[in-house]
Specification:
Distance between the termini: 10 Å
Radius of gyration: 16 Å
Order of helices and strands: EHEHHEHHEHEH
Structural class: alpha/beta
Shape: globular
Helix content: 40-55%
Strand order of the largest sheet: 2-3-1-4-5
Oligomer: single chain
Strand content: 5-15%
Length: about 190
């Protein structure tokens, strides 16, 4: 059986990290989880206070290549039939100051090539109710910024042939059920 790979994407605070926990608890050894490169980079001390173009470009380059390496490591070291990635290589392009086309040119790849890395895309949107939005030391965006990022991520992945979008709900259990059902379909083929 060919191993499959899913990009779990969406705006900030959409439940991606919680979804990964739910998937591991539900499917156990059938899934290998790939952590989000941006969280690793920013939690590891990469500064987020300088919003200069040079700073943003450096961060997104690091995130892009770290994502590729984390995915490659999972592919080489796991026997799980499904790899679930917390974000995909495509996501870094929405943060690129010079635009999406320039991002892929700078990374020496194309949108089409990066989309083809994933068998499916699962997009989660942030909660619509501001009372459910949480900032962290890594997630510094406001709710309005989170919605803008979510719109950009929705747009950049729109050409993927197998994409499921799960909107922002107040009750994560609704989202979790839809996530589990989609992943089960992917595992079963």
């Amino acid at each position: 059986m060919k191993r499959k790979k899913i990009a779990l994407t969406g705006g900030p605070n959409s439940g991606k990290t919680t979804a990964l926990s739910v998937l591991k608890e539900t499917f156990g050894p059938q899934v290998e989880l790939v952590r989000e490169a941006a969280t690793l980079v920013f939690s590891g001390g990469f500064p987020r206070t300088d919003n200069s173009i040079a700073h943003i470009e450096a961060a997104q380059k690091i995130i892009f290549f770290t994502t590729k390496q984390l995915e490659s490591l999972a592919e080489k070291s796991s026997d799980a039939p499904l790899i679930v990635c917390d974000r995909g290589t495509v996501d870094a392009a929405v943060y690129w100051p010079g635009g999406i086309d320039d991002f892929f040119k700078q990374m020496n790849t194309s949108l089409e090539e990066e989309l083809s890395r994933y068998d499916a895309v699962l997009h989660l949107s942030p909660p619509k109710n501001p009372a459910f939005y949480q900032s962290t030391h890594v997630r510094t965006e406001s709710l309005d910024q989170a919605f803008e990022i979510d719109r950009k991520i929705l747009s950049i992945w729109e050409k993927h042939p197998r994409r499921k979008i799960i909107g922002g709900t107040e009750h994560f259990l609704e989202k979790a059920e839809a996530i589990k059902n989609f992943v089960e379909e992917i595992i079963k083929g």
